[in-house]
Design goal:
With 203 residues, this protein is mainly alpha-helical. The protein has two domains: 62 residues, no CATH class; 132 residues, no CATH class. It has a two-stranded antiparallel ribbon with strand order 1-2. The chain is globular, with a radius of gyration of 20 Å.
Length: 203
């Protein structure tokens, strides 16, 4: 609905070239109505409107990022949480509490896409795999922790097995979308889950 990629330059202009400090001083409602006017938004004007919710997320994100002097300051902040499983779990929880519209899974995705490989995204595919295999509960935090623990176990054999790597491999199996090569082989999720269950029951 937002169509960010095709509207990026216009949004950039509205957000003053993505000036965090300037944006953080704006009011959510003012930003929301700027978007409505600029993009001729005709959807109902209420608290559930996607543009209003997105405007709130933008404001919260700008205010949160204004806590950091520069990129290195933000990197140092993230690295402080990369101590053990509880502290890693705490960072996406903190981000999700500070930025409206960003839940635990999206906060993990945000960190993962910035290159922090210790933060897998517990999406619907991974939740189903880990729950049906009996490796976690349905709660995204439980799935996140299970992936990190699996990565730690695998590191005894291969130090390069990060939580992100496990996330990506399982996502590729479940979606069947090998997007880099533009190949789709269809989902093998159920087959994969059955293999895991059989292996675990035999051990």
């Amino acid at each position: 609905m937002i169509k960010y990629q095709e509207r990026k330059e216009i949004i950039k202009d509205i957000l003053c070239d993505f000036d965090l400090e300037h944006v953080s001083l704006c009011k959510t409602e003012e930003l929301y109505y700027k978007f409505r006017q600029k993009f001729n938004v005709t959807s109902e004007d209420n608290n559930f409107n996607s543009w209003r919710k997105w405007s709130k997320s933008i404001m919260d994100a700008a205010k949160f990022m204004c806590n950091f002097k520069d990129v290195n300051d933000f990197k140092n902040f993230v690295n402080l949480f990369d101590y053990n499983l509880p502290t890693r779990t705490a960072l996406p929880l903190l981000i999700s509490s500070k930025i409206s519209g960003i839940g635990f899974a999206l906060a993990c995705d945000f960190l993962k896409e910035l290159g922090y490989t210790n933060y897998p995204k517990p999406d619907v595919h991974l939740i189903q795999v880990f729950v049906e295999a009996g490796l976690s509960s349905k709660d995204p935090i439980s799935v996140f922790e299970a992936i990190v623990r699996m990565s730690d176990d695998c590191k005894e054999i291969d130090p390069e097995v990060t939580p992100y790597k496990i996330d990506k491999i399982i996502w590729l199996i479940c979606s069947g979308k090998f997007y880099i090569d533009e190949i789709s082989v269809g989902s093998h999720k159920e087959e994969f889950i059955n293999i895991i269950v059989d292996e675990l029951s035999n051990n």
